[in-house]
Structure formats: C-alpha cells, structure tokens
Amino acid sequence: MYVYVSELPMPFPPRVRKRIFWQMTVCALGLLVLLLYWFPVRNLELLIPLDVCPSATMALLKDNFTGDLRLWNRPDVLTCTSWKAPIIWDGTFDPDIAQREVRRQNLTIGLTVFAVGRYLEKYLKRFLESAEKHFMVGQRVVYYVFTEQPAAVPRLALGPGRQLRVEFVVRERRWQDVSMARMRTLHEALGGRLGREAQFVLCMDVDQHFTGSFGPEVLADSVAQLHAWHYRWPRWLLPFERDARSAAALARHEGDFYYHAAVFGGSVAALRRLTAHCAQGLRLDRARGLEARWHDESHLNKFFWLYKPAKVLSPEFCWSPEIGRRAEIHHPRLLWARKEYAEVRD
Ligand SMILES: *[C@@H]1O[C@H](CO)[C@@H](O)[C@H](O)[C@H]1NC(C)=O
Ligand SMILES: *[C@@H]1O[C@H](CO)[C@@H](O)[C@H](O)[C@H]1NC(C)=O
C-alpha cells in the first residue's frame, strides 16, 4: 500500500509547533547571554594572532641595561619593533645584569606621580607602599609627588637611598585639565630639581599598584608602554586621534602601537623633548577649541609615532585585571585599579 508523503501525519499540530518554536528561541537567547557572560566579546581578540619578531632582528638586538636580550625565549609574542627596538617581555632579560649596570653607572631613578583631588586619598598610599616593595629595589630612587594638598601625602618609611619630594600644583577644575596640565608641569620639573637629581625618570598614573618587580630592565633613552586593552588589535582599530585639525592627529595608515600614558619614561633630555612636544600640542588644540580623544595620551601617541621609543614595555608592565587571564601575561608588574570615575573625577 502507498502513502503519499504529503499525506503523512505531521508530528505535531501547528499550535504545538509554534510553542516549540518560541521555547527554542528563548532557550537560544538565554544560551547566548550566558555565553557572552562567560566569554566576553573582548575575548574575540584572542582569535587575532600576535606578530613575531623576525629571527634576523632577534640576533642583533642589544640593550644598554640588560646586555643581550633572549628574545627567542618568547616565541609566542612580538619581541621587537619594526625600527629594531626591543619589546620587553618576561623571560627575555636578565634582571641582575640591569641592576649591576645601574649601580655601576651610579644612577638615580625618578618616579613621578600626580595625586590630585580624591586620587590622593584613594590611591597614593598603596601606590607608594607597593613601589617600595617592587620599584627599582636596591637602587637610588627619588619619588616626586605632585599634588595640591601636600600636607595629606602619607609619610612612609623609605628604604635606604630612597627619597620622596612633594611638589605643589594648583588644582585644575576639570579632570581633563588635570591630565593635560601634567605634561607642562613635568616639563618644568625636569628642567629643575628633578632633572638635576635623576638621570632616568618614569612617569606614572597613581591609580595603580605594583605587584611584581619593576626594575632597571625598563630603562632606556625613551620608553613607551603597550596598552593592555589594545596590544592585540589591528592598527586601523586603535583609538588614535583622527580629527585632522588636532595636533595629535594620526591618519589611518599611521601609528605603530597604541601606548598607554599610565607609564612612560626615559632619560631627562628625552623626556624634556617629549613633554615639550605634548604640552605644545595641547596648547595648540586648546587655542583651536579642540580636545583630543584621549587628552594627553593622544599627544603622547603622536610623539611616539614621530620619534620612535628606544624601548617598549609589554602589557605585563601595566596590566588591567579586568581583562582576565591571558596566556602570554606571565607576571603582571603593575595593576590598574578598577576605574571609579564617578567617585574620583568630580
Ligand atoms: C653617586 O651619586 C650620588 C648622588 O648623585 C653622589 O652623591 C655620589 O657621590 C656618587 N658616587 C660616585 C662614586 O660617583
Ligand atoms: C644606549 O646608550 C647610548 C649612549 O649613552 C645612547 O646613545 C643610546 O640611545 C642608548 N640606547 C638605548 C636603546 O637607550
């Protein structure tokens, strides 16, 4: 006996089928939400492979402080730039050689930090205490804290050869202005006592704390920090200033990496040039009624595009715990605090 296919009984009546369709849709949406929760969109960047340094360049790279770099120790990440500067990752340098070299040259290392408004009470103590444990341990260090409330700077017991100086700055009204006045203030300080006392200086944001050794392996004529949020992104996606009227503007095909203004440094002379350039760019923009997308960080990125840094620090040196685990990040050395802008920026 034949049964026509079209006459086969449907497994469910239409009403039930409709209900099943809706149940499946709701389930699928629920799964998607759970998936995004466990596996944030940010993790899609893991699908972008990291570049690797060509072996011809690896063999050549030397460093003034660490001597030979073992760049092949990290085949999983990019360890050099196209202009043959090293990108410092855990495992590529010998920290003891850098320590000895700094002592041999009898260097003093400066660390500047701005603690203005609520940033002071909220972050400065932890920043300094953790710096005493991890920043240039065993070296001569001079901290420069810039603040409008010198009396509120915590008194810490500092290790031998370490000093803390408090510099008064006037408080700007908006936090954008605080961040932008920083370059001008640093430029003046580098031309004064700070520049006479230290030979190399690191400039850092205060809303972070040290969690691992941050030693002289980071020193060079000019030092830039890869931004933890952006080191895997393709160049055209990086958040450079794109408004051509701004002094910080970079065209689509310009820019090497996106650098984080939370850490930069170098020799006093190189930092004088950097801060002069950024302060001038900020002034020009202000005169035109503009404000670059990421304020002084945009101008810093423009500077490092024009004048390439001699050394680049991997995101291990300034990591954001909000990103979660990444296989290539072995020992974070500085961690940003959670951003609580509403609380500290008014
Ligand atoms: C090392 O530098 C310090 C401070 O800059 C100075 O007081 C000291 O005399 C120097 N030591 C040598 C051996 O040059
Ligand atoms: C190494 O030192 C020399 C001389 O002091 C300097 O010209 C050069 O720029 C330094 N290199 C780096 C990578 O800082």
UniProtKB/TrEMBL annotation:
GO terms for molecular function: alpha-1,3-galactosyltransferase activity; metal ion binding. Belongs to the glycosyltransferase 6 family. SUPFAM superfamilies: Nucleotide-diphospho-sugar transferases. UDP-N-acetyl-alpha-D-galactosamine binds at residues 114-116, 119, 205-207. GO terms for biological process: carbohydrate metabolic process; glycosphingolipid biosynthetic process. It is found in: Membrane. It holds the Pfam family Glyco_transf_6. InterPro entries: Glyco_trans_6, Nucleotide-diphossugar_trans. The active site is at residue 297. Its cofactor is Mn(2+). GO terms for cellular component: Golgi apparatus; membrane; vesicle. Mn(2+) binds at residues 205, 207. This is Alpha 1,3-galactosyltransferase 2. The chain crosses the membrane at residues 20-39. It is a single-pass type II membrane protein. The gene is A3GALT2.
